[in-house]
Amino acid sequence: MERRDLFRLIVAGLAGLVMADGSPRRAKAEGNYTRPSAVSRLTFAYEGDQVRLVSEHRVTMIIPPSHPIDRLEIGAGFSVILRNDRGEAVYGRVMESPFRFDQEVFDKDPKRSIRREANPKPKGTFVVLVPAIETARTIEFFDQPLKPKTHLDQRQRIAIFQLSPLPKR
To answer: Is residue 167 part of a domain?
Structure first.
C-alpha cells in the first residue's frame, strides 16, 4: 500500500467513514440525499433546561446524509436521532449544540478583547432538518446536561419528542 493511500485510510478511519479492515462504513439510514426530497423542518425553542417542539413543516430540499447510526448515542457532541415506529434509528446527525449557556460580551474599552460570560437565562430557538420518513415517530437529542459548565459531563438523552404522522400519499 502506498503511503498516500495509507494516509487516506487513516483519515477516513478517524472520521468514522471506514471500518478497521478498510471497508466503507455504511449507516443503516433510510432516504436519498443526492436530490431534493421531502424533509421535516422542525423548530424547537428552549429556555433554561426546558426544550419544546414549536412547529413541524414539510419542505422539499437536499439535506446531509445520516452519520453512522451506531455511533450517535456514544459519540461526542450534540446528536439528533430520528426513530421509526419500532424504535429503530433511521437517521441521525452530529452537529454543533444549539444551546447557548454563555455569550460574547463586548467591552466599551476598545483595548479589551471580546470575552465569554455565563448566560444566566439561556433562551433561544433552532431548526433541525430530517428526512420526512413515513414510519418516523420520534426525534431524540443527545448531549451533555442542559446546565451551565457541564461540557465535561457524560452525554445523555436530553429530550425526546413525538412527531406528527406524515399525511398518506
So the answer is: no
